[in-house]
């Protein structure tokens, strides 16, 4: 997920490591933690793969990182994939993807929203969520969990409706 987020942030502008970390913390703090021990090795791997390039910032003697065309292609591939992963990781990955939706075509945004909606509906239908707990705290925790999924489904449906409306407006013009 850090690779997806890093390549996504570099779509807009070149960044140095500290600013990259700060920007990740702003939008990813609810998804995953970010630390310097992960950022700089990741930047090195992305450089080695040719997905980003590094330049010296003459003003501050900092290394600035920018995305390459190969990095853009890998980023798009990662944006459109649906890896098999835990519910928690899938939720975090979707929110990272949503943060970068403006860089995608409408059809790709619709596809990602519809996929996430299906995943949420399947999660809500999971047999494990039909368990009845005798313990009131366990029962309340399960109800909160179901409520969170229902709120996400409602939000996704609103996002889908807005995206479809925008698509219709564009097709009229």
Structural write-up:
The longest helix has 37 residues. The relative contact order is 0.11. The protein folds into 2 domains: 73 residues, Arc Repressor Mutant, subunit A; 68 residues. It has 173 residues and is mostly helical. The model has no long low-confidence stretch (mean pLDDT 91). Helix 5 packs antiparallel against helix 6 and helix 6 runs antiparallel to helix 7. The two termini are 37 Å apart. Strands 1-3-2 form a 3-stranded antiparallel beta sheet. It has 7 helices and 3 strands. The protein is globular and about 65 Å long.
CATH class of the largest domain: Mainly Alpha
Run of helices and strands = HEHHEEHHHH
List the strand order in the largest sheet: 1-3-2
Compute the number of structural domains.
2
CATH-scheme architecture of the largest domain = Orthogonal Bundle
Total number of strands: 3
Outline the low-pLDDT stretches: none
Mean pLDDT: 91
Question: What fold name stands as the CATH topology of the largest domain?
Answer: Arc Repressor Mutant, subunit A
Could you tell me the radius of gyration in angstroms? 19 Å
CATH superfamily of the largest domain: Winged helix-like DNA-binding domain superfamily/Winged helix DNA-binding domain
**Count of DSSP helices?**
7
